[in-house]
UniProtKB/TrEMBL annotation:
GO terms for molecular function: hydrolase activity. PANTHER family: BLR1149 PROTEIN. SUPFAM superfamilies: Metallo-dependent phosphatases. Pfam families: Metallophos (PF00149). This is Metallophosphoesterase. It comes from Flavisolibacter tropicus. Residues 29-122 form the Calcineurin-like phosphoesterase domain. InterPro entries: Calcineurin-like_PHP, Metallo-depent_PP-like, PdeM-like, Pesterase_MJ0037-like.
Length: 215
């Protein structure tokens, strides 16, 4: 894994990882979005043959990041889970026991529709709308920007187009920072991308082959 890159906001230190996650140094928090755990199982229930290893790979990657950064908490900016309960989410509960000392705060996303008791049993604290810490806001939908607090959002699954020679172009997931908000890349492997249109004042870090490239 490439060493994380530092991005400062309002005097706070955020370390960006090419594994689509950032570490907030002052709060000892890993901040991530859009894991969509259980999505592959949801599609298999519908008869679509998605490989079973997709979710396990995401969880192994997250476990590696927890061991690397040693956070005291996870802040998940929505869509931690994808749909109603299935066998894959039983695997999550077993995985949760291995990191019982790490607090998980979930800002509810549009796909987080499990029963409240399920979240409680799984050790996940659910915040219905916004989470405020210091002078930052964490919310799922990038339409809910709060100008008075620098805002971290997910939901969009941002991607940036990089043009090559001739008419060649490729699209990559990215961290997208403006002067008032950041849109986090989707952590889950089984997710799509939506192209962003950054201005010259914005900071964009493309994630290319396990590396971060500042554009």
């Amino acid at each position: 894994m490439q060493p994380p890159l530092l991005h400062k906001i309002n005097g706070h230190h955020f370390w960006l990882s090419s594994e689509k996650i950032l570490f907030w140094e002052e709060e000892k928090a890993l901040v991530l979005s859009d894991l969509h755990l259980g999505k592959s199982g949801h599609f298999r229930k519908a008869g679509i043959p998605i490989p079973q290893g997709v979710m396990k790979e995401d969880m192994q990657r997250l476990m590696h990041l927890i061991q690397y950064f040693h956070p005291t908490q996870l802040i998940v900016v929505g869509d931690f889970f994808h749909s109603t309960n299935n066998l894959e989410l039983d695997l999550f509960k077993r995985w949760r026991n291995d990191i019982s000392d790490v607090t998980i705060k979930l800002i509810r996303g549009n796909h987080d529709i499990l029963q409240d008791q399920w979240y409680s049993d799984a050790g996940v604290d659910v915040i219905e709308k916004d989470l405020y810490l210091h002078n930052f806001c964490f919310t799922h939908d990038n339409n809910d920007i709060h100008p008075e607090n620098y805002t971290f959002t997910g939901h969009l699954h941002p991607g940036v187009v990089i043009n090559g020679l001739g008419k060649q172009s490729l699209r990559f997931p990215c961290f997208y920072f403006t002067s008032t908000y950041c849109i986090l890349p989707a952590f889950g492997k089984f997710t799509g991308l939506a192209s962003i249109q950054p201005s010259r004042k914005d900071d964009v870090y493309a994630i290319v082959e396990k590396s971060l490239i500042k554009l």
